[in-house]
Design goal:
Length: 283
């Protein structure tokens, strides 16, 4: 249950699409929003100045919240986003919205993209908004076959129902070099996977049934090839307004030692808003 929507900004203009999206989402879900300004270069002499980078974003944000009819609050915290966001979100039942932080290319090269670090250390759902694609009409839900998408799909369903958006459930069959019966059946029948008795085929049928039972207009899409490249191609071809993807349980998950973090790679392409939530293993 989400009690509040948190929107994070460091004052960079690249973060404002998240503000716009948060205002719309707060009104849509009838949930209060809180804009958290990150003062990454704290100085008592600057914070109250009109030239402080947070001032312009806060002023525009208030207008956006009022125009959308969203209940809102404003707050400023000190610290670098990579550390301040995980610390602020910890223990809260919330949805965290953020956009690109506008880091210099050299810093991204040396330290990596901020979103990847934040995603690995935030347990709450995250909505990454490089651009505000509104109104919401078409949503791509990426099914990985391991259940990591369940939490993101649940929240995404709530948003899709409220916005009356259509869902496409996508699974990508990567090149298979393992020689065992299930793998061969998947590789040879990927175009008709929905009709097979494979684990992936069963998961597709169940996912479609769950989506339709929830009241969504949903369809299945199956692609074959590199997972990241096929998701990227589908997003561009399908002109989707929102992506829903899962992520491993934590940055220490064993699976991350030998497979790429597909969610982070797709997010960093800045294709569309991306909703992700960490996989929570049933107790």
């Amino acid at each position: 249950m989400i009690s509040e929507i948190l929107i994070f900004t460091n004052g960079n203009a690249t973060t404002f699409p998240a503000v716009t999206y948060g205002a719309w989402l707060g009104a849509l879900l009838q949930t209060s929003v809180r804009l958290v300004g990150l003062d990454e270069d704290p100085s008592p002499s600057r914070i109250d100045e009109e030239t402080h980078p947070l001032e312009a974003v806060f002023a525009r944000a208030v207008e956006a919240f009022k125009q959308a009819g969203a209940e809102y609050a404003l707050e400023v915290v000190q610290g670098q986003a990579e550390n301040a966001i995980p610390a602020y979100v910890q223990g809260k039942e919330t949805l965290a919205l953020m956009g690109p932080l506008g880091r210099p290319p050299l810093k991204r090269l040396l330290a990596g993209r901020s979103f990847r670090h934040i995603m690995e250390h935030v347990a709450a759902p995250i909505l990454y908004v490089p651009q505000a694609r509104l109104p919401l009409k078409r949503v791509l839900v990426c099914l990985g076959g391991l259940g990591y998408e369940e939490t993101a799909r649940s929240l995404g369903t709530r948003i899709m129902l409220a916005a009356r958006a259509e869902a496409t459930l996508l699974t990508v069959v990567p090149p298979i070099d393992l020689d065992y019966p299930e793998a061969r059946q998947v590789g040879e029948n990927w175009q008709s996977l929905l009709d097979t008795d494979t684990m992936i085929g069963k998961n597709l049928r169940r996912s479609l049934e769950v989506a339709r039972a929830a009241g969504l207009t949903a369809s299945i899409k199956i692609r074959n090839g590199s997972v990241v490249e096929e998701i990227q191609a589908e997003v561009k071809e399908g002109n989707y307004d929102l992506l829903c993807m899962g992520s491993p349980r934590s940055s220490n998950a064993l699976r991350q030692l030998y497979t790429p973090n597909v969610t982070a790679e797709i997010a960093e392409m800045d294709l569309a808003p991306l909703l992700t939530a960490r996989y929570a293993r049933p107790e």
